[in-house]
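Recap from last week: sequence in, structure out.
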Amino acid sequence: MKRRTFVTATAATAATLAAPMLQAQNLPNGPVRIIVGFAPGGGTDVLARIVGQKLQAMWNTTVVIENKAGASGVIAADFVAKAPADGNTLLMAHINSHALAPGLMPKLGYVVERDFTPLTLVGVTPNLLIANTNLPAKTVADVVAHCKANPGKVSFGSAGQGSAQHLAMESFKLAAGVDALHVPYKGSGPMLVDLIGGQIQYSFDTMTAATPHVKSGKVRAIAQTRAKRASGHPTVPTMAEAGFPGFEATTWYGLVGPGKMPAAMAQRMNEDINKVLAMPDVKEKLDLYGAEDGGGTAQQFADFIRAEQQKWAKVIKDAKVTVES
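Predicted structure tokens:
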């Protein structure tokens, strides 16, 4: 009886000791890089740093944010698609790389469903129609009038050709029946510098990137592009409220790894990212930037990506949007 008790106790002790080891096996060995497809200061970069800082403490390892700007996030996505599936390299995926690029670039170097492991949706944000503060425009009607008075000359900046901001602008042009000049940049950061400086006039930028500059008075928010007002900008009307019913152009962000990541590791990462997103200080920051409705299972994120691909493929076709290869 005593021997059985000893054996049982020993087995229980071994299981207790093994649990942290099993958990550790479900995390990468060594530092983790979160690749961001845009320049520092943009919305993707901001959210990656908020989440990465918390994961660093949770995983007790270094989490580095690495910016690989270019091609509206496709360069970074292609890099991660070809990385080893050991969890040491993740991507802050973006609507550009995972929903828009497949419809815009026939020779894309990766297949989203095959070459990535969805982990967790981090957040969905409206875009903000913002203006240089020296412009007189204060409403969407003012912007439309400005464009109609100067066809093909009023400039709208974006984070890159084929980006979410670019397609929001193209949707606006179609809905308003106007012509305007698209000026692509390598990310929201440098675009905002020129918008504030007056080199360009407007942008449908991500709420994440634009919010600090709106709050500081460096740019003017005219409208937001989700069906409901974001809690972080309760006084800014939606495009629908401004006379464009059904106009919706969001930007979203989520963490993914390379394809064929170990299922147990992907599950552990999903659980931990959800814990981070539920932290009060993280929720407060995400609300500030308009990033809502994040979290959920990896399968829910995969289904969301698929639906977004289908939606934007139709928009790209209907608007006849092309980008230089």
